[in-house]
Amino acid sequence: MEKKNISDPRISDTRVNQESSVKDGRTDNGSADQQFFTFAGPGEEMTLEVGSCLGPITIAYETWGHLNADKSNAVLVCHALSGDAHAAATQGGQKSRPGWWDFMVGPGKAIDTDRYFVVCSNVLGSCAGTTGPSSLNPATHRPYGSDFPMITITDMVRAQGRLMDHLGIDRLLSVVGGSVGGMQVLEWCARYPDRMVSAIALATTTRHSAQAIAFNEVARQAIMADANWNLGNYYSSDTPDMGLAVARMIGHITYLSDEAMGTKFGRRLQNPATLSLELGNDFQVESYLRHQGRKFVERFDANSFLYITKAADYFDLAREYGSGSLEQAVSRFKARFLVVSFTSDWLYPTYQSRELLKAMKQNRIDASFCEIKAKWGHDAFLLPGTGLDRLVAGFLGGVCHGR
Length: 403
What we know:
The chain is α/β, with parallel strands linked by helices. The protein has a domain at 35-208 and 316-401: Alpha/Beta hydrolase fold, catalytic domain (Rossmann fold), CATH 3.40.50. It contains 11 helices and 14 strands. It has helices spanning 153-166, 180-191, 210-224, 241-255, 258-264, 284-299, 302-314, 317-322, 326-330, 350-362, 388-402; strands at residues 35-39, 46-47, 53-54, 57-64, 74-78, 105-106, 111-112, 117-121, 136-137, 142-143, 172-178, 196-202, 336-342, 367-372. The strands form 4 sheets. The protein has an 8-stranded mixed sheet with strand order 1-4-8-5-11-12-13-14, sandwiched between helices. A two-stranded antiparallel sheet has the order 2-3. The protein has a two-stranded parallel ribbon with strand order 6-7. Helix 3 (210-224) runs antiparallel to helix 7 (302-314). Mean pLDDT is 91; it is low at 7-29. Homodimer. Its main location: cytoplasm.
């Protein structure tokens, strides 16, 4: 099996893919291809929450739209566990590959790039251009592997804060994200309450339930049980693809609802004529999960999966900022807030969003809440047709009007 070069550990400063239709890294309507920002160089390493030092750190990011004169129209989009900086397609002379949030980000869309300057960065610890376990360790000139220090949601957000400094943005109009991206939104509200006007937290939680931690742990064990894992030091040999694929399959089960899986697959067979009566691939849902596992292995690093899921498990807003009290933790918030949950999300069910809303109301924070009826489970925030786009567009418009 061939070794995959997943990470692109750049240690130089910002790079822009110049195309004939692109001027200064930006197309006519303001969208830019992936760029890179490096900080925490020798002698200035970033001290992580666990106390380890890390540097240099490169952050991959993309932008859409134009920053206005007083730099007051910036919106930061935070991606979920396996996402990346490519939230939307680049609408230049050539249309790029689809983004993971194309229905939300773009000209005339909910996060309107004709109106807002939109930034999305790949999180610390990932493998899509940002420093993570597959990046080169400057001390050894080999990939970090298991030498990469443990990172937290706090560390991810502090790195995003450095990127905003680099872009000259003191205060964000809004920070938006779903799932693990929503955790980043909450961390932004607690850590940098004066650096944001509003926040939108979608399908997220202030801390993982025991069930969510359990699913993550089973997924991690699948990776670590792979014969190729080699304690995380596999970059010069075969990679733990089977373990990572199984981890993704477990994740996909939690992202969908029972109704969604029933609608999409039911008990339909690959070959309607007969059952194989073997340990094969009879049901369409089995084929779907295997396909998702194979696709994921092509684009993601097993160690990044381990580190980011662990960071999500560690996240606990009440413990970090309120000595166990969510009401006390939320008292730090200053942003105008929109919280959205989905009826069929059993990974982060609605009652968890209501707990957050209750804590904010007790602190008299300007917060709105909507539970959207959707059958697609946790992944509903990534899918069009739920009305989420109209909700976000209205909220952002209100923030601008009331500012």
